[in-house]
Amino acid sequence: MAARRLELMLCTGTGCVAGGSYRIKRALEEEIARHGLQEEISLVPTGCNGFCGQGPLLVVMPERIFYGWLKTEDIPFLVEEHFLKGRPVKKLMFTPPERREPIPLLSDIPFFKKQMLIVLRNKGIIDPEKIDDYIARDGYTALEKVLTSMTPEEVIEEIIRSGLRGRGGAGFPTGIKWKVCRNEPKTPKYVICNCDEGDPGAYMDRSVFESDPHSVIEGQTIAAYAIGASHGYIYVRTEYPLAIKRMQKAIEQAREYGLLGENILGTGFSFDLEIREGSGAFVCGEETSLIHSIEGKSPEPRQRPPFPAQVGIWGCPTVINNVETLATVPVIINRGAEWFSKIGTETSKGTKIFSLVGKINNTGLIEVPMGITLREIIYEIGGGIPGNRKFKAVQTGGPSGGCIPASLIDLPIDYESLTQAGSMMGSGGMIVMDEDTCMVDVAKFFIQFTNDESCGKCTVCRDGSAALLEVLTRITDGEGREGDIEFLEELAWAIKDASMCGLGTTLPNPVLTTIRYFRDEYEAHIRERRCPAKVCKNLIAYWIDPQLCQACLICKRECPAEAIYGEKHTVHVIDQSRCTKCGTCLDVCPPRFGAVKKLSGEPIPPVERGMRVERKKKTATPTQEQLSA
Amino acid sequence: MARLTLDELRRKRAEAQKSIYLREGEFRGKIIVHMGTCGIAAGARAIVSAFLEELEKSGVKDIMITTSGCAGLCSKEPMATVEMLNSPPVRYVELTPEKAREIFQAHIIGGTAVAEYALGIGSERGG
Ligand SMILES: Cc1cc2nc3c(=O)[nH]c(=O)nc-3n(C[C@H](O)[C@H](O)[C@H](O)COP(=O)(O)O)c2cc1C
Ligand code: SF4
Ligand code: SF4
Ligand code: SF4
Ligand code: FES
Ligand code: FES
Q1: ipTM for this prediction
Q2: Which chain A residues have a beta carbon less than 8 Å from that of B32?
C-alpha cells in the first residue's frame, strides 16, 4: 500500500456499530472522495476500542486524536477541517464532565491512562478482518518460536512460571492444567476456548473476538502444541453474530496461510479449529456443561473430579480455557514468564479486563494490572459517579459475585482479595452502584437471575434459590419478618455447601455480601418498613410539599394514573390510593420548585385539598443555568 | 494464497509492517504542509502528494506528514514546516513539488536543511 499521511481508526465493535459506525464509515468515504483525499488517507475499521460510552468513535493516527459521539452530520466538517486543512475539531473531542476544555489526544484521556494492554494489545490498532494487520503487530511470532525452538514441556514450564491463572472465573493456574492434560496417557486430546460469556453486562470475550480474533487462535494453537492436541473447538454463544463472523473469517485466513491445518509452517505440527455455537444459557459456560453441549447432550454440569483435563470431551483429556487466558499466552511466550510475573500481585499475575458499567461516568472495557485498587478504577479510569453522587458499592464477578462496599475502596483487586471480601473475580464484570441503589433489591435482582438459570439438577440450588428469592421479595415488599436475615444466611451457606457446580456454590454471594456489608438496610426494611435508598415501591410514597408547590400544573398533566389533584393557584396533592409510584411527578416537577418528595418509613403529612399556593417572593427570572441545574 | 513456510511468513510480516507504521507511534520528525484556503489555492495539495511519494519511495517509517491551518503568510504559499526531533523547526516557502522532493532528500534523508528555500530557521512553532 502506498504511503499515507493519516489513518482513521474507526471502531466497528458491536457497541459502536449499534450507534451507527457503518453510517459514519460511508459518510467518511464519501467526504474523503469528494476532497480527493483517498490516496492520502486510509480508513481502517477496528474492533472495540473500549471506551464504548463514547461511541461511535474514531482515532486519527499518527497523532492519536480521539473523536467520540460522532454523527453523520459532523463528518463533512470534520473531513474538511481536520483531514484536509489540519485543524483538529475541538467540539468532537472528549470533554470530561467536570472540565470545559476537551482532551485531544487519546493518550491524555484518563480512561486510557492507567490501563495496561496485554490481551487488548491490538485493540483499535488493527483491522480484525485482516490477518496481515495482526501479523504486522508481531502476530504469530510466538507460534513460530514455540514450533521451532521449544518443546511442549518447555512451553508448559514457561506458562507455569509466568503465574498465569484462568480468566474465566475460578483462577486455576493455566500451566498446571496443561501439564495435567499432557500427562494423561489417553489420546486424542482436545483444547476448547470458552467464549460463552453468560454474565449479563459482560462483553470482554466478545470484544476480544471482535477486535483481535487471531490472538485467540494463536494462543489456542500454542495450547494445543503444549498438550499434544490436534483438534480444538471454539464455543461461543449464538447471540454474538459479529464475533462469530470475525472469528470464522480469521480461522479461514489462518488456514490459508498455513497457520492452522496440516503441517503448520512446515514444522510437522498439525492442528485445526472449529466453531460451535451455544444456546446461551448461563450454565453452558460451566466447563462440564459446555462439554455436554458440544457433545450434543443436554447442557447440565456433572460432578468433578474427574476434571476435563483428565476426562473431557468424548471422554478424552481436554483443556478448557477462557478467551482472555488464551489471548494472553502469545505475549507470555514472546516477552517471557519473567516479564509477565512482574506485573500484578503476589498471587495474581498480569492484567485483567473488566467491563465497567452502572453508575459511572466512563463506561467501557478496561484492561488493568492486577492489584490496582477500586479507587483507581472508579475515580481515575471511570471518572467517578455521575452527578457527584456518593459511591456505594460495586458488584464484581457477575451475577454470582458479591457487592463490595465503599469502605473497601482501597482494596487491591486480585483473586484472593476479592474472595476474602466475599465476592470473586468471575469473568470481570463490574457494576458500580451509587447511593440511590437499594442493596436488598440488588440481591433480589441477582437471585432472580441465578434462580432462572439454575439447571435444576441439584435440589439445593433449584429450590434453595427459589426460597432465597421468596424471602428477598417479601422483604422488599415490606413484609419482612424478624428472623429473615438469619434464615437467608443459613440457607445461603447450605446452598454453597451442597451444590454440585459453580453456579450453585456462588449464587448466594450477592445475598451474603449485602447482608455482611449492608445489614442495616435489611433491618430498616424489616423493622421500620423503610427502604433507605427509597427504591422499594411498597415502602415509599410520593408527596408534594405544600410549602414548595407553585401550582404549575405540570405534574398533574403528566401523571399517568391521574392521581394528582390541583388547579391554578392551589397546592397540588397526590391521592395515595391511586398513585402507582411511577416517579413521573418527581421527574417533571421543575427543579427550581423541587416540590415532589420521596418518603420512606415516615408518615405522610396530610395536606388539605384546595390550599392556595404560597407565592414565592418574586425573584428575577431564573437563568438558563438554574433551569437546567 | 498458498500455505506459508516460516521464511515466507517472516517476509510477509516485514511487508505488512510497512502498511501500519502510522499506528505505531514512534516518530523522528514531522512535515507539516500548510493548508489554509490560500495554501490550497497555491498548490499545497501537490506538495503533500510529492512528500508522500518521496516517503513511499524511501521506505522511511518514522516521519509523519500532516497538514495544518493558515500560517499567516499568504504571499509565500505553498509552505511546509519540517520538524525533526531535537532540532529547531524549519519553514520552507514558495514550494513546488520539485523543491519538496529536494527538501525531502536533503533534510529528511540527509539531515541538512535546504537554506535556500527556507524562510528562517528557529523561532517557529509548527502549526
Ligand atoms: C455457572 C458457570 C458459568 C461459567 N461461565 C463461564 C464463561 O462464560 N466463560 C468462561 O470462560 N468460563 C466460565 N465458567 C468457568 C468454566 O467452568 C471454566 O472454569 C473456565 O472456562 C476455565 O478456563 P480458565 O481456566 O481459562 O479460566 C463458568 C463457570 C460456572 C460455574
Ligand atoms: S448447582 Fe445448580 S446449576 Fe449447578 S448443577 Fe446443580 S442445579 Fe445445576
Ligand atoms: S408517582 Fe406517578 S402515579 Fe404517583 S402521583 Fe407521581 S406521577 Fe402520579
Ligand atoms: S410540578 Fe411541582 S410545582 Fe408544579 S404543580 Fe406539581 S408539585 Fe407543584
Ligand atoms: S464498540 Fe466501539 S468502543 Fe466499544
Ligand atoms: S491561508 Fe495561507 S497564509 Fe493564510
Answers
A1: 0.83
A2: 86
